[in-house]
Design brief:
This protein has 146 residues and is an alpha/beta fold. The protein has four helices and five strands; from the N terminus they run H-E-E-H-E-H-E-E-H.
Length: 146
């Protein structure tokens, strides 16, 4: 009799591995997002908009959010942490999608928080989800006018 036992992967092994991976990444991501403070809204670089009229010149960051979203508040906090002295020539605006639903559809927003970056009236970058202040600074440094 052969004492060599072979192990075969069954379909449920792969399914179990995927479930474990999704659960673990969800736990890690939730922990990282919970560590970010909520927006304080005092002394913000973001100007609240109810209507969008993009200039033909200049860089514009347009932040779409929902007031009751904790993720949006955390992303707003990260944006507000940017060094204002490093932002010359860049305009920052925020728009609540619940109060301005027509812009949600006009700019094809698929989820929030969502940050659209324009050069004049042309979209050059789209950033979805909560992004760290360090990564936002890298984005600003890549596109800011000198």
């Amino acid at each position: 009799m052969d004492n060599n036992h072979s192990f075969y992967f069954r379909p449920w092994h792969f399914l179990l591995a995927i479930v474990i991976f999704v659960v673990l990444t969800g736990i890690v991501a939730q922990k990282k997002v919970k560590d970010i403070p909520l927006s304080e809204k005092d002394n913000s670089i973001l100007t609240e908009l109810h209507e969008i009229n993009l200039d033909k010149k200049g860089i514009t960051f347009l932040f779409f959010y929902r007031k009751d979203s904790e993720l949006c508040q955390k992303m707003r906090y990260n944006i507000e942490q940017l060094d204002a002295e490093n932002l010359h020539g860049i305009h920052f605006y925020a728009m609540d999608i619940e109060e301005n639903a027509e812009y949600y559809y006009k700019y094809n927003i698929s989820g929030i928080p969502n940050l659209l970056i324009f050069n004049g009236d042309i979209e050059i970058k789209r950033v979805m989800g909560v992004v760290s202040t360090n990564n936002l600074e890298k984005i600003v440094n890549r596109i800011k006018p000198y």
